[in-house]
């Protein structure tokens, strides 16, 4: 469907904002957009999420990445994001991506709790 950005589009998008597709910030973004499928954003998810983030340009989104990463430093949001990733892993065949992200989150948690 034309109103869905899939894996190829996501790679291009990641390139545009200067992050690797497997970067944990992409998981936080998917969580903020309430994306229902890993590696895909629907037009509706995108528009609603970008509006809530007040991002209408690639540059504004690039400048929002640190804000998105900061959600991982808050234990309540961290748990919500971790749960979101876990649910993705159960619902999708993309378990390897989810395992990678879960590992990244676990590392983040170790760093956060050690600080």
TrEMBL record:
Molecular function terms from GO: cullin family protein binding; ubiquitin conjugating enzyme binding; ubiquitin-like protein binding
Coiled-coil features, chain-numbered ranges: none
GO cellular component, one term: ubiquitin ligase complex
InterPro entries listed in its UniProt record: DCN-prot, PONY_dom
DCUN1 domain boundaries: 1-115
Biological process annotations from GO: protein neddylation
Gene3D superfamilies per record: EF-hand
Protein known as: DCN1-like protein
């Amino acid at each position: 469907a034309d109103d869905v950005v899939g894996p190829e589009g996501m790679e291009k998008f990641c390139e545009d904002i200067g992050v690797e597709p497997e970067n944990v910030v992409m998981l936080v973004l998917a969580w903020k957009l309430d994306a229902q499928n890993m590696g895909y954003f629907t037009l509706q998810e995108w528009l609603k999420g970008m509006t809530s983030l007040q991002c209408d340009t690639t540059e504004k989104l690039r400048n929002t990445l640190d804000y998105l990463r900061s959600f991982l430093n808050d234990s309540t949001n961290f748990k919500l994001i971790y749960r979101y990733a876990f649910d993705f892993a159960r619902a999708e065949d993309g378990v390897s991506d989810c395992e990678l992200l879960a590992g990244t989150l676990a590392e983040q948690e170790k760093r956060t709790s050690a600080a």
